[in-house]
Amino acid sequence: MRTSYLGSLLSLSGLLLSSEAAAYTTRVHIALANDIHGALVASTDGRTVALAGSDAVVRLAEDDARSIRDWPEAFRAGAVGPDNFVFPGMTDLTHALGLSPYDQCEDLYGLAATDEERAYALGCFLHGASDAVVHHYVNFLTGETFTLNPISHARESSFSNAARHIVAESMVQDALLDADPEVFGEEAMRHTIPQDFALRAVVSPTSPAWTRMATHALPAWEVVDAADPDAFLVERVEALEVAPAEYLVLLPLMIDRAHIDLDLGVLAVEDTLARYQDPSTPIGGRLGVEPGPDGLLGTSDDDTDCWLTCPELYAEYFTLVAMLEPRADYGGTSATDEIVAELHGDLDGLLPAYVETVAAASQAINAPLAPGESSIDLVELDLESLTGPIEDWADDLVDIDWDLVARTAFPDWLLDLEDFLSSLGIAPFLNDLLASYFQPLIDETRDAVLDIALAEAEAVLADLIAELEASDSIEAEFLERLQAAAPADGPGTVLDDLPSSGLWMHSHNMVAVTLADHRMMLPTEPDWGGVGPASFDASYTLAWSQPALCDDIRPHVLPLGDDLRALLSLSVDGVQHWAEPGQDAPVECHAGELTAFTTTPDGVSCALTDLDTLMDSRTGSLSRAFPPEIAGAGAACLGIAIDGLPEPETETTGTDTTGTDTTGTGTTPGTSSETDPTKRAAPKSRASEPSGCGCQSSSSLPGMGWLVLVLLPLSARRSRH
Ligand SMILES: [Zn+2]
User: Fold this and answer.
1) DSSP β-bridge partners for residue 58
2) Which of 45, 393, 454, 721 has its CA 20 to 30 A from that of 547?
3) Separation of CA 88 and ligand 1 centre (Å)
4) How far apart are CA 108 and CA 121, in angstroms?
5) 336: CA distance to ligand 1 center in Å?
6) How many A from CA of 511 to the centre of ligand 1?
7) In DSSP terms, which residues pair with 572 in a beta bridge?
């Protein structure tokens, strides 16, 4: 559930909305984390989780179980991590097709060096595994996978779909709170992002997870760099063609560039001094600098041809000399070196401030919630205070007391010179001269971060808020649809008894089995966005997962099935009440229309495409929200043994190549229980199974050759003014 934040942000912005639209749910991911944590703590060996709707259990690797048991606050923070980064309400880069979100979790896991960090990384898998379940349900209600270019607007920009997602997810949160008034209590919601880990694993260009998030942003940055390698930071950021979220993912590169700009500022000082000393330049010719008694050029005793007749030149020359002269009391560095070192340090404060901003936002939107309360009542922050740490960083960066710096950094002889010239009626010059070299660079860095990167994020939220204000009737519409699909013999809708629903049971089970072995949710081959789960957002992601593909695992993890009916059905006191939705979540493939999906999806209409191409061709899928059999995809059971579940079948095929572990991560736990590859079961393609939508096709899809950033083009098209 990605948009939980947004509801809270609405309240943060001070707009009064219905409590339904704002009562929210990254909290639901935290509730699931508590569910898993509680199961581990209660189990006799400390690492076992019982599956819902099955007699089976799964057992986590000891390191993983210990990390979750010992670091519940980090586990909870990780469980909402993909919704926290890169910014509240801007979760495309950790969720969408084409950005390998499950691999991002594995990247985090591979980088975790402590139990606390491991707990956070495992939380990411919890988020992704439960999103795969919940979004199938949410997309059924909303009409399609989360997008800013919905079919209701013929794929033009609109926040209408985003608003519908917010409402659908808030209804789940309300249902959970109804079932357990304590579920979002203060203790239950307490969570802590390991900030050093976030800096190292999420907000760092050296992290593979960052590289995946920057799949589109990094090439865009490189285009700007290639267009003008000498451009300063603010010019680069102004020239960028990226989505709002991508400005934020590029912050580390922006700050790297700000460092370079600062060093260029030093070069400018050196260049200017050289011009003053060069008699062939107009300034140098007029000033006529010669070495003084010490025989060295560029020291305090230099001679000049003029001084009273050229006071500005004279003053600036000796200021430059003082800025660059090595000082014994500074260990041989110059005043400029000292000043610039300080500014470099200030610049380095940006990324920690950004992570602090995210952490503060997470506290705000996951504030405790009691029955009858809405987050509007509990969170009385505004957007400015949410972004406080970055704003504070920016304020501190640009607010430089140049007088103090001058008094501290410059040698006494220069201060004396200024006093002397002042006594002759020449205005004080040191502060202004010093500031003129560095203040503009610092100001531009601030502008790039605040006025462009952060402002883009705020603009998106403002647009979304406007949309939500107009979304009053959505909840009633959804309730009507849920009631129509509810079991005829039963206790109401899925929201009337959420803990008994397939939605909740399967979320719990998918999380447990994925924590036991990440390969349950890791894609293998690169085709179709990844053979396997490739999006946190899309419907039918579950159908691409190992628990759905493996006959040995499915009855225990997805006892009610992997379709919409399973999620809407209820198991109450041992009695199964089957929902009757009459349809599944939309299969999101276009065949000639932009305002609707085709009712006869096939390999052509489901070929993955990007938004621009779709707008022209009106054919293809942006989300991969379709089951693998439609693509003719080779999604197959890999025969992975899960500790606690029955051993997979051991028939061998000899020609099985799909059973090879192609995740290439080497960090997946549970290898001790991994099936001997020679004993892996033959891959079982879903193509041989009945399809929920009855829309199988033998057509095959082209493999790569597509670039999907489903949600990004909207913002790339936004004009920023
Ligand atoms: Zn999410």
Assistant:
1) 49
2) 45
3) 11
4) 5
5) 47
6) 13
7) 575
Which residue in this structure is represented by tokens 């309240």? 11
Residue 572 neighbours by CB distance under 10 Å:
15
Residue type, 424: L
CA of 69 to the centre of ligand 1 (A): 23
- CB-based contact 136:1 (threshold 8 Å): no
Query: What is 261-299 written as a DSSP string?
Result: HHHHHHHHHHHHHHHHH-TTSHHHHHH--B--TT--SSS
The DSSP string of 156-224 is: S--SHHHHHHHHHHHHHHHHHHHH-TTTT-HHHH-----HHHHHHHTS-TTSHHHHHHTTTHHHHHHHH
Q: Which residue has the tokens 């390991």?
A: 194
* Spatial contact of 501 and 494, defined as CB atoms under 8 Å apart: yes
Burial of residue 113, with CB atoms counted within 10 A of its CB: 0-12 exposed, 13-18 middle, 19 or more buried: exposed
Q: Cα of 33 to ligand 1 centre, how many Å?
A: 14
- Cα separation of 191 and 446, whole Å? 30
Q: What percent of the chain has pLDDT over 90?
A: 66
- Ligand 1 mean position, distance from CA 706 (Å): 24
How far away, in angstroms, is 645 Cα from ligand 1 center? 28
What is the CA(127)–ligand 1 centre distance, in A?
6
Burial bucket for residue 600 (CB in 10 Å: 0-12, 13-18, 19+):
exposed
**Ligand 1 centre from 297 Cα, in Å?**
64
Q: Can you give the pLDDT at residue 294?
A: 94
**Does pLDDT of 9 surpass 80?**
no
* Ligand 1 centroid – CA 355 distance (Å): 18
Check whether 688 has a pLDDT greater than 70.
no
Digit-coded pLDDT (tens) for 482-514: 999 999 987 899 999 999 999 999 999 999 999
pLDDT, tens digit (0-9, with 9 covering 90-100), for 137-161: 999 999 999 888 999 999 998 888 8
The pLDDT assigned to 681 comes to 36
| Ligand 1 centroid – CA 507 distance (Å) | 13
Q: Average per-residue pLDDT in the chain?
A: 84
Between 4-12 and 27-42, two packed helices, what is the crossing angle to 10 degrees?
130
Structure tokens at 609: 């495409």
List of residues 6+ apart from 717 with CB closer than 8 A: 157
Cα of 147 vs centre of ligand 1, distance in Å, is: 13
What spacing in Å lies between the alpha carbon of 2 and ligand 1's midpoint? 4
Ligand 1 centroid distance, CA of 707 (Å): 22
* DSSP H or E stretch at residue 49: strand 48-50
C-alpha 97 to ligand 1 mean position (Å):
13
For 604-642, the pLDDT digits (tens) are: 999 999 999 999 999 999 999 999 998 777 789 999 999
Q: How far is CA 717 from CA 154, 244, 617, 712, in A?
A: 16, 10, 19, 9
Q: Which among 646, 605, 650 has a CA at the least distance from the CA of 625? A: 605
**Between these two residues, 375 and 431, which has the higher pLDDT value?**
431
H or E, element range at 305: none
pTM: 0.86
Distance 85 CA to ligand 1 centre (A): 10
Say how many Å lie between the CA of residue 1 and the centre of ligand 1.
Answer: 4
Closest by CA to 83, choosing from 41, 28, 36, is 28
CA 30–ligand 1 middle distance (angstroms) = 12
